[in-house]
Automatic annotation (TrEMBL):
Residues 33-382 form the Cation/H+ exchanger transmembrane domain. Pfam families: Na_H_Exchanger. It is found in: Membrane. The chain crosses the membrane at residues 48-65, 71-90, 102-125, 131-152, 164-186, 198-223, 235-266, 286-312, 319-335, 341-358, 370-395. It comes from the Bacteria. InterPro entries: Cation/H_exchanger_TM, Na+/solute_symporter_sf. Keywords: Membrane, Transmembrane, Transmembrane helix. It is a multi-pass membrane protein. The keyword Membrane applies. This is Cation:proton antiporter.
Amino acid sequence: MTALDSGARVWAGLAVTPSSELMFIVGVLLAGALAGEFIAATTRLPRVVGYTLAGFLAAAFGHGVTLPLSGAAQTVTDLALGLLLFEIGSRVNLRWLRRNPGLLATSLAEALLSAAAVALVLRAFDVGWPTALACALLAMPAPAAMSGRVALEMGAEGQVTQRAQLLTALNTGYAVIALTLMRTWWAADDGGSLPQALAGMAISLLTTLGVAALLAGAVYLAARRLDLRNESAALLLFGLVAFAIVAARSIGVSTLLMPLLAGLLLRNTCARPWVWPRHFGTSGGALVLMLFVIVGSAWSPSLLVAGGFAALALLAARWLGKAVAIVALAPWAGASWRQGLALSVTMMPLSGTALVMLSELMRAEAQLAAGAVPIILASIAVLELAGPVAVQLALRLAGELPPAPTPRKESQP
């Protein structure tokens, strides 16, 4: 086997030896870091574009990750998304929804309308109802990773940035629970007992809530004795969240819903604000970088062709559904039309959350997922590159980006 062949197997996530796993992680980290810094140095675009471009180019040369995710690719994706969802959940104050019911209505409307629009459009492309509904649920959540990372790098602050975090947290929860319900229904429809399937689903959700409560409690106890802004304390926090995510994966509960619920519990059962380094410091930042490279490489030219116009139609219907709901309800939610339009654009990307949900669906319902794979992966491939630019433009439209520094004029001798 040549060195090139060996590298291809590492990129594809097929090798299982510890050295190959380490090579995979190092290769992803180096490629993403170099591409991100190149983009930052040569353009005004976010580094996320460079991270994604590194994965995109790897996939173009046949070295993308394979689905369902496994090995190092699955570990990195689970940890990075789990950390991001825990962080977003811990910054979302659900009391805001009680004070502003228009926000709750906006959240429900954008999730339901976008899902319905996707399902109906795919049916127009002769996609079967089960596949169309699966794609609708997979396309429901906005990406926690992309919008949050772009806002952080650009230094965005304001109502649109905060509302994007809230809507992302809520529609991720809706999508995971709805997909679990659908899988339960399919299991019963295939000859199983519906009460037994519902009981299994209830046990799974309660277990997820239990693990989330344990994680929230552990972080709360650590925060009583440590300053979480300290680097060592942040590393302990990183370890607690990572351990809970690994435990969730081992017992078979959602690695998306558990950290999100833990963050929400932590934020909304305690009045104190929670402050720690973004992405829990350098370790979390490295994982997030690798996440974008991995998600950006989860496609192939053949999948783009197979997804075809159905994927483009899904993207158009998805954004239109979200935009109509968010802009129409903006006055009730206390936002201007301009803020509503900007917020709808921040909801446009489709990223790691959909990829993980698709991977789990492939393990549970391989035959059903087969029809959704090309459509969803083609959609992710398009929006992984276009999404960060769209979020940046939306935040600029909302006026929430700090002014660009003016270059210093050299004094004349």
